[in-house]
Structure formats: C-alpha cells, structure tokens
Write a structure and sequence with these properties.
The complex is a heterotetramer of chains A (163), B (384), C (158) and D (381). In chain A, the strands form three sheets. Chain A has a five-stranded antiparallel sheet, with no helix packed on it. Chain A has a three-stranded antiparallel sheet with strand order 5-4-6, with helices on one face. Chain A has a two-stranded antiparallel sheet with strand order 1-2. In chain A, 10% of the residues lie in helices and 39% in strands. Chain A is extended and about 65 Å long. Chain A is mainly β and 163 residues long. Chain B is an alpha/beta fold and 384 residues long. Chain D has a domain of 130 residues: Thiolase/Chalcone synthase (Peroxisomal Thiolase, Chain A, domain 1, 3-Layer(aba) Sandwich), CATH 3.40.47.10. Chain D is built from 13 helices and eleven strands. Chain D has a nine-stranded mixed sheet. Chain D has a two-stranded antiparallel sheet with strand order 5-6. In chain D, 73% of the residues are buried. Chains in contact: A-B, A-C, A-D, B-C, B-D, C-D. Chains B and D meet through helix 2, helix 3, strand 3, helix 5 and strand 8 of B and strand 3, helix 3, strand 8 and helix 9 of D.
C-alpha cells in the first residue's frame, strides 16, 4: 500500500528487532525576546537584558528573571568579547548534531557587560592553548539565518589585535 | 490522614491557534502570573510545582527542567507528569496529592501546549505502538464516529443531537474571554460543516490551540487565608485499561464508567444530575457530549438526546455543561484538562465572570486521555 | 546601549529541519511470535488468558485484568469483521517520513473471529459508502513477507 | 507527616540490548516486587509508572506498560523523570489517606534509541540546542569548571570509577563489573575533556519497581518494612551559564530538607550507606560535597582517603552505582531499591554490615539540574 514505509527488520535467536524512525518536523516560535536577540546578531551586535531588581544582565536575553520573576524590558548591548569560564574539547563525532568535526570545543563565555555565561562553540583556535580565563571574541556568520549559529563560534583574541 | 485541600487560584492564557510572540517558557509564564495574581500570592508562596504537556508536540525533553524561566521553579521542587490528553487531570490530581500528603502547603500545577509548533496529528500518531499500530492510527475520530453511528441506530438519536452539543459549547465560549474559538453558530452551521468521518463533522470536533493554564492548590490551613471562597477538592479518580488501541470496548466505555463510579463514591454523590451544579467535561467530539453523559450515570441509556433537546445541559438548564465553551472551543492539549479543573474551580469560587452559573456548590471536571484514560475531580464550596 | 536597532518587530521561528530519531525496538517474545506467524504461516496469532479466557490480539505476555502470564496461543485465521473505520481525507505528516501521507486512506479496527480485541490495519476501499461497520473482511498477505504487520498488505471486504 | 514504608523492591539485571520489550521488563519487576513483599496485585490499590516519550520513542509512552504495571482497574498515574521523583509521587499518594499501598515502576531501554540525540533535546530549541551539545559534552563543561576551581585531579575522578566498578562485582544486577586501575581510566579514550570513556556510565536497559505502604499496611504485611524518613527535591536554573557549575545548591537544598525531616544533623556520622547518581565519575565527588559528606572542594580528598569504599566509614555506591549500570529514569529508583536491600541486610556480597540509615539520590535534567534525596531507615524512630 502507498503509505507503508520500509524499515529494517532483524531476526536474532528467533526474536525480531524492528527499526523505527520518527521524523516529525518542528517550528519553534522564538518569541519577541529571542527574535530581538537574533535581529541584533544580524547587525553583529549582541544584546542582553537587564533585571533592575537583581542587577543581572542576561545574555542571551530572557523575558522573565528566574530569580525575582519580574518581566524584563531593559535591553543592553554587551561586548562581543568576553572571558572563557569553562570549556571542553570534544573528541567524538555525531554528524547529525555537530556543526564541526572533532576535535572541537564548547565553552561557556562571560561577555563583557554580561553577568551570565553563554554556551557556545570555540573555533579558529589552537585547542591545545585553551585556558580558563582567556579572552574570546564572537565570530559572526556571514549570512545570518536568525538562529543561535548566527554567532558561528567564539575565537581567541590574539594579542596583536589588542594593540 | 488526608489533609483537606482546596483550589485557591486559576490563571490561563488567551488561547489561540498560534502564539508567535512568545516561546513555550514565556507562554507558561503568562498563565503562572495570572494564577498568582488571582490568588494574590507571589512566587515565594509556592512550595512546589508540577508541570505537564505531551513531549512530541514541541520536542522538548525534560520539560520540567526547561520550564524554570516560565514556571518559576528556580530552587524549588518541580516534577513532570504526563498521560496524553488527560495530562491536565493528572496534573490536578498530582497537585492534590502533593498537598493532601502533608509534604507541601501551596502547590501549583501547570499544563501547557504549543500545538502550532508541530503537525499535531503526526505527533499524536506516535502514541500508537510503533510496530503494530502506528501506521494505522489516523486519530480517534474513527472509533468515535462508529460509536455514535451505533448509538444513533440503537436509540434513535440524530446528528442534530450531537450538533446541539456543539452549538451549546461553541456559543458558551462567547462568554469566555480566554476561549480560542468564539463564534456564534447554529445547528444548521454544524450540519453544513465539512464531513470529517461520518457522522462527525468539522464543527463537531475540537481545534488545536496554543495555551497554558496554572491552578494553585493549598492546604486547609492556608486556603482560607488566601481566598475567602476556595474550591475544596472532594475527590479525584482515574481509570484506564488499554495497551493497544484495538483493546478498547467502545460500546461499553468501561473506563469512563469506572472513573465516574469511583469519583462519585469518594465524594458521596448518588444522583449526579441533582447533586452536581455544573460540569466541565473533556469532550473531544460533540458526539461524546451525547453518549458519555449516560456512561457518567447522569441519565439512563438512550435518555441523553431528550435531555439535550430539553436544554438540561444549557447555561440555564438543570446541569449546565461546559460554560467555558469546553474542548470544542479551546484545546491546548496538555492544558486542556487542567482548564476543565480551573474552570470548575472558578465556578465554585464564584469568579467565572460572564460564564458564571449561579450558586454553584458542587462542580465536576473530567479529563480524557487520547485513548480512553479518564480522570475526574469533584470540587465543592464546602470542606470535605 | 538601548534596544536593538531598527525597532523592527520581527518574530522569528526556529526550524528543526530534517531531524530524525532512529530506534531499534525489540519486539520481545510474544510480538515476535505474532510477526513470525504472519511471515511464515500467513496466519494471525492471538493469546488466551488461562483465567478469564479473553483472547488478545496482538498477543502479549500478561492479561491486564487477571495479571497472569498467558501461554495458550490461538490461531485466529485471517477473517473477521469491521468494528470501526476511518477514511482519512486530510493528509497529515507521516511521522515515519516527515512527509504528508497519501489520502484517502482507510484505517480499520478488525475484530477477528475468535478474538476479544481488535487488530488495526488498512482496508483497500476508500469510498465510505461502500464500507460498513460489521462487514466481513479478510487479510490479504503479501508474497514477500519480512515479519512486519505489513506482511498483511491490507484487509478486503468479503 | 504520617509514616510510610517501602515493603517490596524488584530490579532486572541491567544490560545492553535486553530482548524483552518495555511491558515485559515492567512485568518482570512488578512480579519480583510483589513476590518480595509477599503480596498479590489485588493488595495494591494504585500505580505510578515512569516513562519518557523520547527514550521510549512514542508519545504517551505510559500506554505501553499499563497492563504490565498492574494499572488495569486501578487508580494509575505517570511521571516523566528520574525514578526518585516518581517514587516521591508514589509516597505522596501513599500518605494522602486515599490509598493503602502503591506500586511505582520505571523502565528504560537506552540501547534502542540514540542517547546523544535524545539528550540534546533537553536543550533550548530557541537557543543552544543547535550547538549539538549532549549529556557528555555538557557534563564535561561542568567537570572542568568544578575541577579547575578546586584543583580536583582527573586521577581523583578516576578513583570513583575504580571503586564503583569494583563494587559492581558484588552486585548481580550490575551491567559493568570491572577490575580496573586509575591508569586504565586515564588511558581510556578521551570523549570530551576531561571526561574519558571509563569516567562515563554505560548504556543500559532495565527496569525497577518498588512497593510503598502506609504505616498500618506495612506493619500488617512486611517482615522488615524500610521506613521513609525524609524526601526532598529541588531544581536549579535551566541555562548552564546561569548556574554555579562548581557546586550544586539544588542538591544542598534538597539534602538539608530531607535531613531535617529525618532528624539528621551530622550526615557523615548518621548515615551508614549512600547510593548516589554518579552518571559521570566527577559527579560522585560533587555530590559528596552537596550532601555535606565533606566540605566544598574536598570531594577529591575524600575519595582518596578511602572512607567511601566498602569497609570505609560511609560506603558510597556499594552496588557499583550508576557508573556500573545506567538505565536512564531507572537509575534513581535503583538507588532506592539498593538502599532498601542494605537496610534489610539482604544486599549479599555488597552488604554494608549493620546499616541502619541509608541515603538514596537521583538527578534529572542537564548537568543534574534537579536533585532528589531520600533518607531511609530500618528503625522506626
């Protein structure tokens, strides 16, 4: 019949194993807050949002402060440079998940002007030289698509750039 | 033994087909904030939170953990319960047991769904057994249609009887600012709407919505201090019995009968038609609003159509059903059954606005799992 | 400082793209026997509860009502009647493929002779007027069978 | 709070690629728990199951196991999350005055899906999910943050793996009993620095069930009821960048509340045995600290001292822990089941002699966002 999908069937010791696949597509609403964040990335600007009550600048921004539960409205542009708080170098490949080939690194970066860390990829780097506390800078995607990878990765700031 | 428990606050979003302006956490937050406001509480007053939805509609694993920014569960206890369409009933029961057990004093249950984020039928069809039933499960409409076809044949009911249920629920929704579909319809409109699966037509069936609902439960000590007229939980009950869709006995509706029997017994109800003042029922199709009244022992077999024709279940009738507009007008699936409980509570608390039924002392809410998991709650204005 | 430039209020959506999840489900002993019955013997197997006598299809280990292990296999043959049916007319996304299903498609619940529960499958008729609840049906098997529920190609009205 | 007891437990052996399906696994452990309690299903009046629609590969996954869990005709419900959480809900129902005895089940066949992809779905679809981050890589961020702050070494983490795999040799249910050395762990393939293969838990299939009863029912039925003295759970912030990854305040909060209920003021001295959720080796060290077994940053020294080994003052994970069997959603309830066996003196070769007070611990979410702590005792008062 038309609607049958052929999946793998394995027989082992008289018992069957059926392959199955779930391919339900999803479209998630970013909402006003994340949309603004992504619109900022299009202009190579990183926006956070400040909770005046807790005096915390959240990057990425969120609509509600999880600490005091107030609605947040105070937008703040933060630096595209920051400090590496922790990182890991990944040595396995998971092609459907990873946008980079192993070895590559994830890090949590606290941008200048932000009070929370942003989890992201670390690229354009000598991975052996990654250290907590080192300075990183955002690398923006050339053609923004309105998602998290509009920041392609964070790369180490070379001393020469500091002048 | 059991601590007495009451509902003290209800909040919900303005339900609609698609909320593009908020993500899931932000949608949840709207309902949570309204519930807190309704109870005049702050987040600090909430001791524990329970959340539920159906995972495959939004593809978020560990929703309880993800929800924190919206639910307010930061450094609080939160857990997730889920049973499909009946999730809202499961949430209400879970909140009740959180309080009744003595572990927590003030507890919030949150149900939510953003059905717009996936193809609802694709996601729901993954509930069928992947090896034997998934490919053949086009939804619950077929068996419900067959059920009503058999019922019409046996008891002389008509398609118009079901249409009257649809008209009642849809038109009640005009009084509910939170309802998703708010449009005046007639029996003729229902009869002329596209046939989905004979004899069920488009206006006989429920929509899919984006929405959230939060309901706050409190202990006997706390409830009267929070609100002068809490809605006391007198009983909750659940019954279900299937593993495969093919297992269910559509004619006898054993799980609905068992649930109703159990919840009436626990609440000391012997004549639901006389003793219950308002019902908020999870009716996915208008046909269910005909047949299921009988399985809930509201009337005897075959008697429901005449009661519907007499207007017994209308707003001004003896036992108003779905003053809110019910599931036929609003259906964010993981929230749907919790909305039933919340609406029943508002009726008892006298806070239902334009949809208020006068002088409600006893209200009943039900939940229906996507295939025959029924839950029920009885709320009263007086303590158990 | 201040709000993002442009003041343009654009609402974005994030897409999952072609994401898929692959599973390898063990059928277990009872479901395997059932599927091998389809594949090797072109017959539909049920299982009977030793206590209440209920005959379950598909077969499974435990009778939920009596909570006893079942071991009496019943050969249900290939015929029964339509307990309920749906002609699906609106194409929804097939979770197996992420693409719309082909419609119309008739889903049926078959009460096989000798069974107390129904088996779900497809009927080869999509004209509602030609389908009746209670009509006799028979399983049509494929020539090449692999141990899946689709070893029955469809049911047809007798 | 009224009192309740655990009066029956059942576990499958944990292994990869179990041939039973979900229902058959659950039926096995429900039967075992009933036999253990000397009960029939008729003696049980309500059921809590535990499922996860992602791991199980179907929505409303609780449908698959309803009959096997004994739900037919009973008031039943379903939790999605670690087994310690569903057990807590079971306890609430038991103490609600509505029921006498509750059975709680959980199962998972991690081997049937793609664990990394399924865990990636725990991340925010609007933000960081697109990074492709999963349980191992996110935990590696936490491990490095913790180790870097307190000078915890990879060798100290490896000691956890050595201890727990060795303990697993005494546990017939364990998936991975191993005789390994610190060197073996250090030389095992690097997955996400600093986490190596032998710092991780295996992909295990399995199921677990426990039966709880009111005090009255427990006294009537059980030879050796194990009393629940305290339970609490607590959840941290969602985003990793908003948490203190080097210390779990959520664990501390949950533990303090559970200790308070149980009258525990000095956990190190008052608790005889602990079963904690060590999904990765570094976690056990962090949980020592959050549970108050040692000071902040002292987890490494504590494992080195040998005081949490079998024969030490407070043996942790005599069963081999989660590093030796990790069936997601089951592992927390397995900790409870193991604690019960210890308190009954029925833990066989992994028995901690004379154990009277036990701790069981579960986690949920990314980098253990939620913690649940149980205190159990063989003694009534």
């Amino acid at each position: 019949m038309d609607n049958e999908t052929i999946f793998e069937v394995v027989e082992r010791d008289g018992l069957l194993i059926h392959q199955g696949v779930i391919r339900v597509p999803y479209t998630w609403a970013a909402g006003e807050v994340a949309s603004k964040f992504y619109m900022g990335l299009r202009d190579k600007k990183i926006y956070g949002i400040r909770c005046p009550h807790c005096d915390i600048v959240f990057v990425p921004p969120k609509k509600v402060c999880h600490r005091c539960f107030d609605n947040l409205t105070e937008w703040v542009e933060v630096s595209d440079e920051g400090t590496l708080e922790t990182f890991t170098i990944v040595h396995y490949n998971e092609p459907e998940l990873h946008s980079m080939k192993a070895p590559f690194a994830y890090g949590i970066i606290k941008l200048d002007g932000a009070d929370t860390g942003i989890t992201h990829l670390i690229g354009e780097a000598n991975l052996n030289r990654l250290r907590e506390g080192m300075r990183l800078k955002a690398v923006f995607r050339d053609e923004p698509q309105g998602n998290y990878l509009d920041i392609k990765c964070f790369k180490p700031i070379e001393r020469a750039n500091h002048g | 033994m059991a601590r007495r428990t009451a509902i003290v606050g209800v909040g919900q979003t303005y339900h609609t087909s698609k909320r593009k302006d908020v993500n899931g956490q932000e949608l949840i937050n709207e309902a949570v904030k309204r519930a807190l406001e309704d109870a005049n509480l702050t987040l600090k007053d909430i001791d524990a939170i329970i959340i539920g939805n159906m995972d495959h509609f939004e593809a978020i694993n560990y929703v309880d953990c993800w929800s924190v920014d919206g639910s307010g569960a930061f450094m609080k206890p939160i857990m997730k319960v889920t049973t499909g369409g009946s999730t809202g009933g499961t949430l209400g029961a879970c909140a009740y047991y959180h309080v009744a057990s003595g572990f927590f004093d003030v507890v919030m249950a949150i149900g939510w769904e953003k059905n717009s984020e996936s193809d609802t039928q694709a996601a729901i069809s993954t509930c069928a057994d992947p090896i034997l039933e998934r490919d053949f499960f086009g939804g619950a409409i077929g068996p419900n249609a067959a059920e009503y076809a058999m019922y019409m044949k046996e008891y002389g009911a008509t398609q118009e009887d079901a249409a009257r249920v649809a008209v009642r629920d849809h038109n009640n929704a005009l009084n509910n600012p939170y309802a998703h579909l708010r449009k005046f319809i007639t029996v003729e409109d229902v009869m002329n709407s596209p046939m989905l699966c004979w004899p069920i037509k488009l206006l006989d069936s429920c929509p899919r919505s984006d929405g959230a609902c939060a309901v706050i439960y409190a202990s006997e000590d706390r409830a009267p201090k929070i609100t002068p007229k809490p809605a006391w939980v007198h009983a909750t009950a659940v019954s279900h019995d299937y593993v495969y869709f093919g297992d269910f006995d559509w004619e006898a509706m054993p799980t609905l009968e068992a649930t109703a029997t159990r919840v009436y017994k626990r609440a000391g109800i012997t004549n639901p038609l006389k003793e219950i003042d308002v019902m908020e029922l999870y009716l996915p199709f208008s046909t269910c609003g005909v047949i299921w009244m009988e399985h809930m022992w509201v009337c005897s077999r075959g008697e429901s159509p005449s009661l519907i024709r007499r207007g017994v279940f209308d707003m001004k009738g003896e036992l108003p059903v779905n003053p809110s507009g019910g599931v036929l007008s609003t259906n964010p699936i993981g929230a749907t059954a919790l909305i039933r409980i919340g609406e029943a509570a508002l009726q008892v608390m006298g806070k239902a606005g334009d949809r208020q039924v006068s002088n409600v002392k006893t209200a009943m809410a039900t939940a229906f799992g996507s295939c025959y998991w029924f839950e029920a709650t009885i709320l009263r204005a007086t303590k158990p | 400082m201040g709000a993002p430039a442009g003041g343009e209020k654009k609402l974005l959506e994030i897409s999952s793209g072609e994401a898929e999840h692959v599973y390898y489900w063990h059928c277990g002993y009872y479901m395997s026997q059932f599927l091998l019955g389809l594949r090797d013997r072109k017959t539909i197997l049920g299982i009977k509860c030793p206590r209440c006598g209920r005959v379950y299809v598909p077969p499974r280990e435990v009778c939920g009502r009596c909570f006893v292990t079942m071991d009496e296999w019943v050969d249900l043959g290939t015929e029964g009647y339509i307990y309920a049916f749906t002609v699906v007319k609106l194409p929804y996304i097939d979770p197996n493929t992420g693409k719309p299903i082909k419609v119309p498609r008739t889903d049926i619940y078959v009460k096989l002779d000798g069974a107390d529960t129904c088996l779900m499958h497809w009927l080869d008729e999509t004209d509602e007027k030609k389908i009746a609840v209670g009509a006799r049906v028979k399983a049509v098997f494929k020539k090449r069978r692999r141990g899946t529920i689709h070893d029955i190609e469809y049911f047809k009205q007798i | 709070m009224d009192r309740a007891a655990i009066i029956g437990v059942g576990q499958t052996k944990y292994e990869r690629g179990k041939t039973k399906n979900f229902a058959e696994l659950v039926y096995e452990v429900v039967r075992k728990a009933l036999d253990d309690a000397g009960m029939e299903l008729d003696d049980i009046d309500n059921v809590v199951t535990t499922t996860n629609d992602f791991w199980d590969g179907r929505t409303i996954a609780c449908m698959a196991i309803a009959e096997a869990a004994g739900s037919y005709g009973r008031d039943a419900t379903n939790v999605e999350g670690d087994g310690t959480l569903s057990s807590f809900y079971g306890l609430m129902r038991t103490l609600s005055g509505v029921y006498n005895s509750t059975i709680v089940t959980t199962h998972c066949k991690v081997s049937e899906g793609s664990p990394r992809k399924l865990f990636n779905q725990a991340f925010d679809p609007v933000y960081d999910r697109l990074l492709g981050i999963d349980a191992i890589s996110s935990s590696a961020l936490q491990a490095r943050a913790y180790m870097n702050k307190f000078g915890i070494t990879e060798e100290q983490c490896a000691l956890v793996s050595v201890k727990n795999h060795r303990n697993a040799k005494n546990n017939p249910y364990a998936h991975l009993p191993l005789d390994i050395t610190v060197e073996d762990v250090m030389k095992s393939p690097m997955l996400a620095e600093p986490i190596k293969l032998l710092d991780t838990s295996p992909v295990s299939d399995g199921a677990c069930a426990i039966i709880m009863a009111t005090e009255k029912e427990a006294r009537r039925r059980a030879k050796r009821p194990i009393w629940v003295k305290g339970v609490a759970h607590c959840t941290d912030a969602y985003r990793l960048g908003e948490r203190d990854l080097t210390y779990s305040s959520a664990l501390e909060t949950a533990a303090k509340k559970a200790y308070q209920m149980a009258g525990i003021t000095d956990p190190w001295r008052q608790i005889d045995v602990a079963e904690v959720y060590d999904a990765f080796s570094y976690m056990e060290l962090m949980w020592y600290e959050g549970l108050g077994f040692c000071g902040r940053g002292e987890g490494g020294k504590l494992i080195e001292s040998g005081r949490t080994e079998m024969g030490g003052e407070l043996p942790v994970n005599p069963s081999g822990g989660v590093l030796s069997a990790h069936s997601v959603q089951v592992a927390g309830m397995a900790r409870i089941a193991e604690a019960v066996l210890q308190l009954r003196g029925e833990a066989g070769k992994r028995q901690v002699p004379g154990a009277k007070v036990a701790l069981a611990h579960g986690i949920n979410g990314i980098c253990a966002q939620t913690h649940c702590v149980w205190i159990l005792s063989s003694e009534e008062r």
